[in-house]
Amino acid sequence: MTDPIALTAELIRCPTVTPDDGTGLRVLERPLRKAGFECHFVERGRVPNLYARWGAKGAAKSFGFNGHTDVVPEGDPEAWSVPPFSARQVDGVLYGRGATDMKSGVAAFAAAAIDFVTETPPDGAVILAITGDEEGDAVDGTRALLDWMAREGEAMSVCLVGEPTSRERFGDMIKIGRRGALSAWITVRGKQGHTAYPDRAVNPLTALARLADRLASHRLDEGTAHFDPSTLALTSIDTGNPATNVIPAEARMAVNVRFNDAHSSQAVVEWIGEVAGEVTEDFDVDVDIKVKVSGESFLTPPGPLSDLVAAAVEAETGVAPVLSTSGGTSDARFIKEHCPVVEFGLTGRTMHQVDECVPVGEIVRLKAVYRRILAAYFA
Predict the structure, then answer these.
(1) Mean pLDDT across the stretch 144-170?
(2) Theoretical Cys-Cys bridge with 204: which of 59, 188, 238, 243, CB 3.0 to 4.6 Å?
(3) What CATH number corresponds to the domain at position 226?
(4) At residue 75, does pLDDT exceed 80?
(5) Is the peptide bond before 351 cis (omega within 30 degrees of 0)?
(6) Residue 374 phi, psi (nearest 5)
């Protein structure tokens, strides 16, 4: 039996801060090749990715797992109770950067896949698509793997992303979709002047304050069948003006929008532009908007795949999971264009925090869930 705890610890000891995977993917390659997986390293933009397949290329039925070995920076190492890449186990809890997000998930599905194909070889293919670029811009990670798969004629029938999805207790939530996300940086330009003579200046802050209020106070929608209401959050307002007797020439703000399937990113951007245009006319200022779209909203409708995963989760945990679309973005937003995709993993309570950790028992149970999913899928 492949030990997912030992494999998680070995991965944690690789300091794979985005986009430096270090030796993480090589750690996975060794046991996968030994179990008969055909492994390919797909590199783009100096980002390493690993594609591993057991079974025939082009198999009529294939189950894919997706995950990432890169992690966010550890922050101040002195703030940790253990060295952040030591993978130290204390009282049944494994500590280290990536313990939750998501080296334990990768180790669990790799261990489950290795044991499954070794003990009960399926009629089909088992695929692992693992990236070293999820926590960053995610340009050369899973998207690079999917591009390579398209060129090489590789395909997954369905896919499970091993992100930490459980909210309060292990097994309580499966993600069947994600909200879309975009950030907008808005610059308002007026005319600099003396605060004693405001009639000789055009104050961009007054216009920016009005724009910020109109954007933040507007309710985008009331939610949809599978999504909570969309949200817009102000994340920054700045002028860079140290003087209290000067009206600045320019003011800037940033907003982040999480939108459901009632909107596209284009529709959200057009709405921001319309509101900005009205403020421009009212205050005689110029407005410039730059936008970065992280992903569109998507949904894998409840059905065979989510039923399969939910049944396996409940069988192993005794918990009937909720089907959710909450949270941030994940690489499932890219996979949705390739095949049906859902997400299930550990409780994400400590991800990205100092002293990130995971109970070792959860890693074992997660492997058991993944193993049961494979058995049910190929039954």
Answers:
(1) 97
(2) 188
(3) 3.30.70.360
(4) yes
(5) no
(6) -60, -45
For residues 193 and 199, give the distance between their C-alpha atoms in angstroms, rounded to a whole number: 9
Place of tokens 């095949």: 339
Give the tens place of pLDDT for each residue, 225-234.
999 999 999 9
Instruction: With a cut of 80, say whether residue 20 has pLDDT above it.
Output: no
User: For residue 354, how many C-alpha atoms fall within 13 Å in the half-sphere facing its CB?
Assistant: 8
CA distance 201 to 249: 9
Kindly list the catalytic residues. 70, 134
The Cα–Cα gap between 114 and 37 comes to 8
Average pLDDT for residues 120-142, to the nearest whole number?
Answer: 94
Q: Which long-range contacts (CB under 8 A, 24 or more apart) does 85-92 make?
A: 85/12, 85/13, 85/14, 85/15, 86/12, 86/13, 87/8, 87/9, 87/10, 87/12, 87/13, 89/9, 89/360, 92/359, 92/360, 92/361
Note whether 288 and 323 are same-domain residues: no
Side-chain half-sphere CA neighbours of 274 within 13 A: 6
The residue among 195, 57, 191, 70 whose CA lies nearest residue 130 is: 70
- Look up tokens 């059905």; give the residue: 303
- Rounded-to-integer distance, Cα 345 and Cα 332, Å: 13
Strand (E) positions, 98-198?
A: 125-131, 158-161, 173-175, 177-178, 180-189, 193-194
Final residue belonging to a domain, choices 227, 260, 295:
295
Which CATH number fits the domain that encloses residue 134? 3.40.630.10
pLDDT value of residue 46: 86
Same domain membership, residue 238 and residue 172: no
pTM of the model: 0.92
Task: Compute the distance between CA of residue 298 and CA of residue 285 in angstroms, rounded to an integer.
Answer: 37
Condensed to tens digits (0 to 9), the pLDDT of residues 281-302 reads 999 999 999 999 999 999 999 9
The pair of structure tokens assigned to 297 is 């909203």
